Amino acid sequence: MTATAPTWQVAEWLNVASPLTLAGLRGRVVVAGAFQMLCPGCVAHLLPQLGRVHETFATMGVQVVGLHTVFEHHAAMTPLALRAFVHEYRIIFPVGIDQPGPAGEPLPETMRAYAMQGTPTLLLYDRRGGLRGQIFGPIPDLRLGAEIMALLGERADDAG
Hints:
six-stranded mixed beta sheet
């Protein structure tokens, strides 16, 4: 079953020449990871996993995207600090900085729209841009690979 995916609300993109949208990525399977650079599970598990997915599936029609969704320690996790983090950790896939929430609201816009429980959160989209999975916490590589292959096996007009 395909769920309608909320639009990403991104304040700034890193590692891409122009902003990405789900609509603009139609025709590709999208694997997006919501992370915080000070989240141990994100640094130890999600970001390396996204790198492996990018290396393995980029030529097969899969787009990996990182979404920096800061909901705590806002003063420490600035866009400037994130740019240094992305450089130091050699993250080469696109990374969007989730639009901060309104004044006084700690949750950023995309995180709120998806009702994420926290980070790391993995989002899987089919070729039509439909949300096919939202997983909080780590997911084994084999399971993720199987889910990606299943989505790649669907024709774009069959998804959903």
